[in-house]
């Protein structure tokens, strides 16, 4: 799922952030952009521009499918982790930043996505179905309104953040295992298609469990992130890769696959946390870009589809002329590099466009008007706490 100002790290006298969580969010948003580029742009382009590049198409399809359990579950675990303290606060202190802000942003960016999709479709000689690339559906006005109200279209994660926090507040007095268990049951029923999911609301149904797990297990997560555990991280990553490939290749049936989804995603979240901690503590120079990206998740999430809508017709025409003419090895190399390079361009462009919009006074695109903050954090964390920095021998991670 940020846009908060940089704060001291563990090497300074006070600490108000946990960089592993920012790095995890940065990886999450990058994987979301890569998934959208692959499924909604690269594969359609490859069918025309690279008819012989089936290997690259297969590889990127597999990569995105295997990492599917990481993307949004990891994001929502971190969102819930940062929301843990706010869930204990009075409604009057949290209603605006935690519910109203994200409800406003969901409606605003749904409208902007639809308008961008319509504009791109008109330029390409089609309508919203072609311009929205499948990211904005259904295309009829009535269905679009219903899907938007149910959180099944467009930037649904904004809707989910407002909904999950509201549910978390309403159930704050219930035992946490009961809340997490109920959310897990909803997710399982959704995976097995036992639960009606009109207007493609499966994602909202399936990700609540990770938000509530992150909020309920803030203490264990701090312990898990207290120090690097390279063997644990390697084992979790290897297990996730093996299980993901096996589940992708095997036809286990709907129910068996549904049962496997929850433990697979739990393994993915664990691997994501462990790898983020390992990266931040062991290779800080490599972690730094991911930490910075994790603090800008909102503009990247909401702006990259608009940029993709605008670029898709141009890139499709350009690629059909240039890339189809490449000889075999160069065509394969171009196909392999295309998704990550375009994803990086979209991420950097989104960050740049966000900075320009902020300077132009359009901060209302990223925050509820009248908010004291310039940009709505995604997810917003609790008020920064000033804590003493740990010594080099400390075994605990400082909290926010």
Shape: globular
- What is the terminal separation in angstroms? 18 Å
Structural class: mainly alpha
Q: Number of helical segments?
A: 15
Query: How many structural domains in the coordinates?
Result: 1
Features:
400 residues; mainly alpha; two-stranded antiparallel ribbon; 70% helix; 1% strand; disordered N terminus; disordered C terminus
Concise account of the structure shown:
The protein is mainly α and 400 residues long. It contains 15 helices and 2 strands.
How would you sum up this structure, described in words?
With 400 residues, the chain is mostly helical. The chain has one domain (14-388). Helix content is 70%, strand content 1%. The chain is built from 15 helices and two strands. It has helices at 19-49, 54-66, 68-83, 91-123, 128-131, 141-150, 156-170, 176-191, 202-216, 218-224, 230-249, 254-282, 284-294, 297-322, 328-359; strands at 14-15, 387-388. Helix 3 crosses helix 9. The chain is globular.
SSE blueprint and pairings:
Layout: E1 14-15, H1 19-49, H2 54-66, H3 68-83, H4 91-123, H5 128-131, H6 141-150, H7 156-170, H8 176-191, H9 202-216, H10 218-224, H11 230-249, H12 254-282, H13 284-294, H14 297-322, H15 328-359, E2 387-388
Antiparallel strand pairs: 1-2
Helix pairs in contact: 1-2, 1-3, 1-12, 1-13, 1-14, 1-15, 2-15, 3-9, 3-12, 4-7, 4-14, 7-9, 8-9, 8-12, 11-12, 12-13, 14-15
